[in-house]
# Entry
Amino acid sequence: MLVETAITIPVFLLLVAAVMELGVMFRDYTALRGTTIEAVRAAVIAGNDFDADFRILEVIEDVSSPLPADSIQQIVVFRADSWDTEVPPSCLLASQETTTIRCNRYVGSSMTELLDRFGCDDLTDLDQSWCPSERVVIQSPANGGPPDYVGIHIEIERAAITGFFAQEQTLTSTKVLRIEPRDR
# Structure
């Protein structure tokens, strides 16, 4: 009986740790997915408003509270060709100044930036790479439509609870929707 207990207790504890780790990871992924969905909703409603990316980041800050503090590593707002477009790899790089891909990359601390850092008026504005005013919102093909697809990609890094399986885990979520059409 003592030998069987000595064999089963470590296996049981490992199983409990795995279930706990997977449960917390699933909770974080669900919160991340919900945050991404709310952010893309904000993006399609904001359309080509000068403060579109600022409003997207505000929504992310508001709805990401279930995620571990300071876990957001990057947020990418990108132009997509269709609803199933993957985030362009160059948009995930830390320096995107030379990229021709239309995307804006933000870090977690960007959510606390003031509105005057957005709007594409200045070369130091955070939304320079894909200026919201360049986003197509017109429905009619004769006037430049149809509207663009906008994608939101959020990446978080979370510390493992037990550390048995990994020290840190990176979770990502990407969602793409078409911008709501407007008359102008």
